[in-house]
Q: What sequence folds into this?
């Protein structure tokens, strides 16, 4: 079992964890029991260190002000000396947008990591505690969703930024779904309160209805739009104003007379909302007692960490209003590393994986996750989250996937594209290192055969051909190899028929950015073909097969016979392979070869040459020749049987269907509806705001090429849209025929 992989000193701790938590909890209440028990066994110094640590991300819909918000956080925490704006309007650009393309386009392409310290002052006692905050700013564009995925995978909490005018938008919903996937609690910041049409109460209502989570304001704005002056803290009943040229000083004052009634109303609503999700607050509420400010803060913290509630703050990052209270909320309401249940995989000698709980304790054996790679000035930079144990400069660590050992020559903390050398990083910390040959998602240990569970990676939906204009194929190869290692959603393959390199990704912008980066970072200009849709093939009826592969060419020949059924899979998005051979007619070794043949066959379907989706292959009989049968013969026979049965099982071509969200000024609504109808989109919902609208629709990806140009023309450049993969559906019959004919001509 595990013992052969572990140093003797490591065995007692891992086996104890295994005994104590052989069944992982499925509810937060169960998680809390495990977390409390692990915390009780932790040393006081270690617990104190992690209690003052926060690992958070900043996530939102595109253009909600995430990077602008992050810039203020860095300024107010003393991490930077001056505020710079997105899009490089001051010829500098936001600190966290370190890539030239990010500064030019005004979007975040890669998640950027930094750390800062925040002195949190307790309102009643005046006591000051210093917190260490690891911060990751993530992209808002759906094409770069993998950056959000891998950031949330390693974070303990998040700040969800919502626009006060637009409210909850399509990517807000996507980010929320990703947060739920990784059990990430969040506080919400309603940004852009200084804009015309700002309505925080509408935004909170949308959070409750669209994100389906209890939410309540902990602040009330003082003024609005151009007259935004500050906020009222409804927990401690105090007004907060930003003073100084850049809002660097917070001044407290009494609640304005005209807001006292609204503040009392919103405070009562906060208490009632908390009573619905927190047992202790419910008891206070039912006893008709007035909770103290400390009891409200404690209830918010419990409910937020339990992922049952999100406290809502408000302000304006661009106007330097009410950012410091968000930092206070991060410290008050989001969990430290010891309050989050992280699980790993205990890998036994035979390769079996068993989930285990990971105590966030520096005294445990080291286990870390390489969650992000990027090319730095000194070579490949690998970002690592330390889940347990310590990462020390000069120590040896093992890549669990490859078994390769590496000496840690340099350890750094990152601040955007700058770095600070450190000697060690303890449990709960995020750091980076150089000179490690690994891929995104690899786990590292110092001996224990353990790993982190894998990250969700969406399948690419769009492809295009690419080739260098010059003969500089060496730099071209370097570029695409590097980008593949850094980004799991960026795929590269070589098409033997067309002799072209094909790149695949999450959308047009995704691939456009990589083509531009190849040009800028490797000085290789490329020509690209028209984007191609990632079609799929499937079957709609079952078909039986009895296939014999036989070849004789002197000496030992090739012989294999397989029998069985091909049918639609139980779930349309998976492929299944099963065997039910009795009496040992086909050995396990040959059945394993059959499965490899099945995996080969689904890569290129016999109908149009695209990948196969949603099929189940069952082999229940066959025949072996004593001399001529081999693994290669059975692998080949399985491919032949699959292709033959597939064409007899009423095959069809599938195309990707996308969720589309279009936002534009109200005067362009009819033009946008007409444009969507022209593209055969099915409109599912429309939201009309004060001066803009959002239309939600479903549309074939094939019909969305060129939509960005058409939308700009129809809305005078003021419209924006997002595309997100929804599912695969049967393609129109004429399109299927066209694809089949095109494939048959190539044969």
A:
């Amino acid at each position: 079992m595990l013992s052969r992989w572990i140093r003797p000193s490591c065995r007692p701790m891992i086996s104890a964890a295994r005994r104590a938590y052989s069944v992982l909890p499925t509810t937060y209440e169960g998680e809390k029991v495990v977390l409390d028990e692990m915390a009780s066994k932790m040393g006081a110094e270690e617990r104190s260190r992690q209690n003052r640590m926060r690992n958070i991300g900043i996530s939102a819909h595109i253009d909600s002000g995430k990077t602008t918000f992050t810039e203020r956080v860095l300024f107010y925490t003393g991490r930077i000396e001056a505020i710079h704006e997105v899009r490089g309007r001051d010829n500098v650009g936001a600190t966290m947008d370190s890539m030239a393309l990010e500064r030019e386009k005004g979007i975040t392409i890669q998640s950027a990591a930094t750390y800062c310290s925040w002195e949190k002052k307790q309102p009643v006692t005046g006591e000051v505690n210093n917190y260490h905050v690891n911060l990751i700013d993530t992209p808002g564009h759906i094409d770069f969703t993998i950056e959000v995925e891998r950031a949330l995978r390693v974070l303990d909490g998040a700040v969800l930024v919502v626009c006060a005018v637009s409210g909850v938008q399509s990517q807000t919903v996507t980010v929320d779904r990703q947060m739920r996937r990784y059990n990430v609690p969040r506080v919400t910041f309603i940004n852009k309160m200084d804009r015309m049409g700002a309505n925080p109460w509408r935004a909170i209502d949308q959070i409750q209805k669209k994100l389906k989570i209890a939410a309540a304001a902990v602040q009330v704005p003082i003024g609005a739009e151009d007259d935004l002056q500050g906020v009222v803290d409804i927990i401690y009943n105090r007004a907060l104003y930003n003073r100084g040229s850049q809002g660097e000083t917070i001044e407290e004052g009494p609640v304005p007379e005209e807001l006292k009634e609204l503040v009392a109303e919103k405070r009562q609503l906060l208490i009632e909302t908390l009573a619905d999700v927190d047992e202790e607050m419910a008891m206070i509420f039912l006893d008709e007692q007035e909770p103290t400010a400390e009891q409200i803060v404690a209830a918010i913290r419990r409910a937020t960490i339990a992922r049952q509630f999100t406290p809502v703050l408000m302000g304006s990052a661009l106007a330097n209003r009410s950012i410091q209270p968000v930092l206070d909320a991060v410290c008050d309401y989001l969990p430290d590393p010891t309050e989050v249940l992280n699980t790993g995989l205990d890998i036994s000698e035979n390769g079996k994986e068993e989930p285990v709980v990971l105590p966030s304790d520096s005294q445990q054996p080291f286990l870390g996750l390489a969650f992000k790679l990027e090319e730095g000035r000194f070579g490949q930079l690998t970002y690592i989250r330390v889940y347990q144990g310590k990462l020390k400069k000069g120590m040896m660590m093992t890549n669990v996937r490859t078994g390769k050992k590496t000496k840690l020559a340099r350890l750094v903390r990152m601040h955007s594209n700058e770095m600070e050398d450190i000697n060690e990083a303890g449990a709960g910390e995020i750091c980076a290192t150089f000179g490690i040959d690994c891929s995104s998602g690899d786990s590292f240990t110092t001996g224990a055969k353990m790993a982190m569970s894998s990250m969700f990676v969406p399948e690419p939906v769009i492809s295009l051909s690419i080739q260098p204009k010059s003969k500089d194929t060496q730099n071209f190869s370097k570029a695409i190899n590097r980008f593949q290692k850094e980004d799991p959603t960026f795929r590269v393959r070589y098409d033997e028929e067309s002799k072209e390199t094909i790149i695949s990704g999450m959308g047009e912008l995704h691939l456009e950015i990589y083509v531009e980066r190849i040009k800028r970072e490797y000085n290789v200009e490329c020509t690209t073909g028209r984007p191609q849709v990632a079609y799929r093939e499937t079957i709609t009826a079952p078909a039986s097969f009895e296939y014999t592969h036989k070849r004789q060419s002197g000496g030992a020949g090739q012989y294999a016979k397989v029998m069985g059924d091909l049918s639609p899979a139980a779930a349309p998005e998976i492929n299944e392979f099963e065997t039910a051979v009795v009496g040992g007619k086909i050995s396990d070794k040959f059945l394993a070869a059959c499965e490899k043949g099945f995996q080969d066959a689904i890569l290129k379907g016999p109908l149009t040459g695209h990948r196969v989706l949603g099929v189940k292959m069952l082999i229940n009989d066959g025949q072996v020749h004593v001399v001529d049968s081999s693994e290669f013969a059975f692998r080949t026979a399985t491919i032949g049987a699959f292709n033959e049965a597939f064409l007899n099982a009423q095959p069809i071509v599938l195309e990707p269907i996308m969720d589309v969200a279009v936002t534009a000024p109200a005067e362009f609504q009819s033009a946008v509806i007409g444009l969507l109808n022209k593209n055969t989109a099915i409109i599912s919902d429309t939201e009309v705001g004060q001066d803009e609208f959002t239309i939600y629709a479903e549309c074939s990806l094939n019909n969305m090429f060129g939509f960005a140009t058409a939308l700009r023309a129809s809305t005078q450049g003021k419209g924006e849209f997002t595309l997100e993969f929804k599912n695969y559906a049967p393609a129109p019959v004429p399109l299927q025929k066209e694809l089949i004919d095109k494939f048959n001509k190539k044969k």
Remarks:
- The first strand starts at residue 53 and ends at 60.
- The first helix runs from residue 11 to 20.
- Residues 654-744 form a domain with the Alpha-Beta Plaits fold (CATH 3.30.70.240).
- The radius of gyration is 28 Å.
